[in-house]
Amino acid sequence: MTDLDSLLLADPRPERRPGELGARELARWTWRQLTSMRTALILLLVLALAAVPGSIIPQSGVDALEVSRWKDQHPSLTPIYERLSLFSVYDSAWFSAIYILLMISLVGCIIPRTFVYLRNIRAQPPAAPRNLLRLPDHASYTSPQEVDEVLAQARVVLRSRGYRLRDADPDGPGGPGADSLSAERGYLREVGNLIFHLSVIFVLVGFAIGSLLGYQGGVIILQGTTFANTSASYDDFDPGSLFGTDDFDPFLMTVDGFDIEWLTEGSAAGTARKFNARLTYQETVEAPEETYDLRVNHPLTIGNTGIFLIGHGYAPVLTVRDGEGNVAASGPT
To answer: Which residue of 58, 106, 125, 215 could cross-link 66, Cys pair, CB 3.0 to 4.6 Å?
Structure first.
């Protein structure tokens, strides 16, 4: 036995089982699966389903008072919901994971398809085959016109119908006498697919930008009082990671009146049918006053801030008297 044989026996090369993937092949396979259209559609559906709890369960960033009321009414479910981050669905780790995977899948899917599409647009139509009889669909006829006249008429007709043309190469396989014309259209068939993917990406990017650069806040404003748009004026305030105190729109807003229509019949009698707030606002301290009728699903937009009416209630008037019966403080709360 030679030294080489001893070395081979001492350190045999590991055998790869049939179908076994190495690290590089596994990474490539995983990337292809992640960036496939099927995976993107599945992740989009999962993201839509994951957003459902955020529309059913009250969210801390939208209405902290409603969250507190819900917790008092469901003490047994509250620990489970808090562990699953169901009171802040859109800020939870599992929702962000789905969101990021969908972004990666869409970007990885759209970039190669875009380059392929641009390459196809710049490419010429395929050359006319030398034997048309081999095509599944073909037709032939005899014309008394010259070849150049027939080709000229064909160019006019095909261009008018949106075809791109390619003349035969006289130096190609057919030789100088191979007079032919090939045409192709349908280059927009991939545009719809690309627009769909790009639209989803734009929506996701916009959502991410709004979460980073924007904020959400809630405040109870008493009728007849004025609200100034500062962080201290909010009852609950949830700013984005990149939002600064200088980014507030400096508006003032006064609730002049509040109108409610009640249901008077049926099991829901006593429930508000609709309600609206009559506002007077100034976009800046120096700006003139304007009025607006704030209703549900009809927000007021001032600068980059959207103001929504999400609820109504009563403000009881409390009076505090001292030991001698004098009024120490009085007013709505």
So the answer is: 58
Token digits of residue 20: 């076994």
Going by C-alpha positions, the residue among 18, 21, 49, 48 that lies closest to residue 33 is 21
- Cα separation, 205 vs 325, whole angstroms: 61
> Taking a C-beta distance cutoff of 8 angstroms, is the pair 254, 226 a contact?
yes
- DSSP E strands in the chain: the ranges are 164-167, 181-184, 215-218, 226-228, 236-239, 252-262, 272-282, 290-295, 300-302, 305-307, 317-321, 327-332
Size (the chain), residues? 333
Residues whose CB is less than 8 angstroms from the CB of residue 192 and which lie 6 or more positions away in sequence, other chains included: none
CB 163 within 8 A of CB 135: no
Q: State the pLDDT at residue 65.
A: 79
What type of residue sits at position 11? D
pTM of the model as a whole: 0.58
Between CA 214 and CA 305 the distance in angstroms is: 9
* 60: its two tokens: 């801390």
Q: State residue 277 phi and psi, 5-degree precision.
A: -115, 130
Neighbours of 273 (CB within 10 A): 10
Tell me: the pLDDT tens digits for 23-56? 788 888 888 888 888 888 899 899 999 999 988 9
Eight-state DSSP code of residue 125: P
Could you give phi then psi for residue 51, rounded to 5 degrees? -80, -15
Degrees to nearest 5, angle at CA 319 with 318 and 324: 160
Furthest-apart CA atoms within the chain: distance in Å? 121
From CA 207, how far away is CA 99, in angstroms rounded? 10
